[in-house]
Request: fold
Amino acid sequence: MKLFISHSSADKALVETIYKRLGTDAAWIDKAEIEWGELFLAKITEGIEKASDFVLFWSKSSQKSEWVRLELNMAFIRMLNERAMRLKVVLLDRTALPLYLRPYHFLDVCESEDPLEEILHKLVPALKEPLKAQRHRFLNRSSELERIELAIDDSETSVICVAGFQGIGKGALLDEAIRRFFEGSDSIAVDVAGGTDLTELALKLNAKARRVELTIGLSKAQLEQELALSLETIARAGRFLVIKNIQHWLDEDARTISPLTELLSITKNITAFKDRPVFLSSTRKINTNPVEAEGLTQIFVNGLEDKYISTLIRLWYEITDGKELSHEDSLVVAGELHGHPIAAKLAAGLIGQYGIQQLKEFTQPLVQLRRDLARHLISQVNLNDDTKLLMESLAVARTPLPSSVLIKTLSINEDNFLAAVNQASQSGFLIHGQALEAHPLLLDYFWRTSWSREDYKPYAKNLAEAVWEYARSFPTDSVQFCDLLPICVRLYALSGDMDRAKAIRRDLLGELAEAAIDHYNRRNYDLAEQFIDEVLSADSSHWRMRLYKARVNIRRERWKEAENILRELLSERPADKGVLHAMGWRFLRARVYDRALDHFIQVIEFGEHVRSLRDAAECLYELGNDDEALRFLERAKAVESENPYVLDLEARIYEGKNEYGLAYEAAKLAAMRNPVDWSIQHRLGRIIVALGKPNEAIPFFNKAIELNQRQFTPRASLIAVLLDMKEDPREVREQLKGARRSAQTPSDEGIIANLEARCLKAEGKLDEAARKLEVEISNKKNLIHNNGLLAEIRLAQYYKDKDEFPASARSFLGKARLAVEEGLRLDSSDKRLNDLNARLPSDSK
Reply:
């Protein structure tokens, strides 16, 4: 806080004591702040401009003081113009307050036995509160405003470009700068979209500046001439030109394209723009050449400080829910948002949805908010592979790294590295200091995209080696070495080299635990279990590792081992929602849906838990209760309206009901909500196949594989589509190699056997295909699909032999009939089996 104390010299003894008790850094008082010989008026003006609070000590003497009246007038001007100051009046005696001061009556100590302590008791907490319900949209941009003002005063600057993340407040900053620095300003604003070209810009400026209609079919030179005339008209009229979102006029390397190139060329030659520059906003900094740089000043806008984000949260919460939120509670949430104003607005909605206490204890909604915002920001930039790798390396390391370390890790030449740094910097993804650091808002996003790297272990090993070499350049007792030590342990652990990780520092169990979770998230369950066991051998009570050990067992279909761990955990914490949900998930994965549902219902009894509502809906769906499942999903959507996994299950249910239009809409929205989830891309592909467009589904299956190379399911679906489309079996064989590498469960192995049999059938190797299927059926694997495929093969053999070998043909028909009957016994409603049954010739009976 910075408090301006206005008072009469007659009350100075009391006021000076309050000033000292508040702290000289927190308050401003004329005697302390104005040195002898300085201009009183200038110093008072400066004090009021810097203050967030103006406290007037009102008495008979202050009523008569000319200085108090002057200070009060200045404070009112600032309040009215900027709404960036609070005014409080403390009554020291019974002198009547003027009418205009009565709304600001704060405290009456006329009859107080100890006015000093009473004033401090009430004033200190009030001053710590941020400005209540501040309506002025502009917050804490004094440094950016100062830079803009310096650029305006620079006689060489004709264009000012303000760059920063989308929604960070660039437009508000430009509006504020024009309002503050130019009295009676009149602006022309143009909002650029993806298709705004030279013609459209010329049309818009002509209409707004000259009110003339352009002739259709003008040449580029004529359009440039019209644009120059419009800009001259704007400049001569003393008007401002503000063009927003000019990132659409930058290529992939952030170099200017038309019409920005023409705009910059024209404006620097118009003298009037030296005094009233053209203002641009962009999500990326312009990569200029020396000619374009002439007359252009670029200013990058960072996020707001937590205290200002806190103010925005409180404002939006009051608007949306009609309730007040304490400064302390809003600061807790603000710390999770990394200074983004849009995030503050969205977070206020989360507080209304979940309650502040739940967000303090369970931050997942805030994490998801950051991910969604990061996805949106990154979608505005077409990142090249080197830039993506740079950002992923910084996210995996989770620490600033010098260029020398990164260039070793990325294994790219210096030019490509500089190009990657340049693209990331222009997009605002990097924080530059002594080392490069990823913007905290984007860390989680790029950490997650790194999971899909098929080569993540050697990649992590390279990063570990480079960071360890960097760490050893510092003395072992230095702060730098101590900070890098746990990072090296985690990176070696992430690469799978446990011995190296332990050799560096074997007692950093937290880093080994993080590596275990990383391996689990990357679906490398063998390594995950190895690191989990290492942590548990040192600390058998480690709660999180025990829970992840259970999850690994569930993934590996070791049901009893998982259940034993979870029961032990529940004996210690009977109401733990995470463990209860994991127990339900154990039964869900084992397809024991009624028992799984019981556990999810227990979690839901504690509150509308989205994951449990979603998984309960899956149980109901598998139990054949589609309508009730959809009702559970509606409850989940009421808590989190566009949760992609809820939408994905909704699509799956509609898919099962053959309502493919509704399924497609839900899956499409899920993919928009989470474009980097392979399973949702896979779902879209399956639905498109069901809509009878297998060729259009192939890109979605390929996208799913690209997003996660280690996933088996999209490869299996792609192979099935290629077989359905009768593609070259050699291509199918290539895809089968990748499917075998990614298979991890017995179910996956069973699907591969079925696909291999289909491939053999497509190659005409019917006997070999039938033998493979009979082995699978005898082992009770994938019975419905395998019986159906076996029936098709036997039927093909029948038609092949019926004319030349009638006896063997009848035998094949009998086997086809048996396969169909066995399949229908397992599922009498299976459409494929029923179709086969109808196609069987009558003499097969």
